[in-house]
Amino acid sequence: MIALLYDVHGNLPALDAVLADARAVGATGWVVGGDVALFGAFPAETVARLRSLDDAQWLRGNGERWTAAPAEAPGEGSVPGAIAAAREALGDELVAELGRLPESVALGDDARAWHGSPAGDVLSFLPDPAPSDAELLAGVTERRLVFGHTHLPFRRVHEGIELINPGSVGMPMDGDRRAAYALLHADGGVEHRRVEYPVDEVVATLRERDAAWADAVAGRVERAAF
């Protein structure tokens, strides 16, 4: 059984709660789906915890790409400050290593995991069907895609292709403050799960940084919404 861990965003308490839950129900493998450190209160500690996992497949999200190449990131809002903080916490070597992660990993013969979609790490699917689905799936041959980026857990099928978003471990955006992840069972079944963690403590830690980016992120974590 594989645990699908997406969009942790440096939220170590949420990650620890998810890892404990996943191990308790028998997870033995892991997919680390990108955006592990950026925008978080505990970027280095979160990466270290994830690197301690055995049998883990990692892929790169836009967070890793932006942190390694800040010129590719948006230059407004909370992004530049968060990138600077993440680069300082992680160090040049680790930032570069994370930036070299693959864009996708295979999950068996007929499934593949991406961060956003095959079309790009900031282009992703929404819970409801959209005209952009066909463009995002152009050239796809797999029958199952796992992805994150939007922080919205769901499962749906588009023209025979199963689309699975496990949700965000560290920064859910669906109004539910609990950490979100999913399990891929040996029989192919998918189980979405939610886990309690000390949200208010993480919010307080972010606000203690006295930085505009951290205050913006604290609000998102607190509300489970942008």
Report on the architecture of this protein.
The chain is globular. The model has no long low-confidence stretch (mean pLDDT 96). The chain contains eight helices and ten strands. By secondary structure, it is α/β, with parallel strands linked by helices. Helix 6 links the parallel strand 5 and strand 6 (144-146). Helix 7 runs antiparallel to helix 8. It has helices at 12-24, 43-51, 62-68, 79-90, 92-99, 133-136, 199-207, 212-223; strands spanning 2-5, 29-32, 56-58, 104-106, 111-114, 144-146, 154-158, 161-165, 179-184, 190-195.
Overall structural class, as computed from helix and strand content, comes to alpha/beta
Q: In CATH, what is the class?
A: Alpha Beta
CATH superfamily caption? Metallo-dependent phosphatases
- Strand runs, count: 10
Share of β-strand residues: 15-25%
Number of distinct helices? 8
Q: Unreliable stretches, pLDDT < 50, 5 or more residues? A: none
Q: In terms of quaternary structure, what is this?
A: single chain
Features:
33% helix, 8 helices, Purple Acid Phosphatase, chain A, domain 2, 5-stranded mixed beta sheet, single chain
Layout of SSEs?
Elements: E1 2-5, H1 12-24, E2 29-32, H2 43-51, E3 56-58, H3 62-68, H4 79-90, H5 92-99, E4 104-106, E5 111-114, H6 133-136, E6 144-146, E7 154-158, E8 161-165, E9 179-184, E10 190-195, H7 199-207, H8 212-223
Parallel strand pairs: 1-2, 2-3, 5-6, 6-8
Antiparallel strand pairs: 1-9, 4-5, 7-8, 9-10
Brief overview, please?
With 226 residues, the chain is an alpha/beta fold. The chain has helices at residues 12-24, 43-51, 62-68, 79-90, 92-99, 133-136, 199-207, 212-223, and strands spanning 2-5, 29-32, 56-58, 104-106, 111-114, 144-146, 154-158, 161-165, 179-184, 190-195.
